[in-house]
Amino acid sequence: MPIITVKMLEGRTDEQKEQMIKKMTEVMVETTGARTEAVTVVIEEMNKANYGHAGKRLI
Question: Which positions are catalytic?
Answer without folding.
Answer: 2
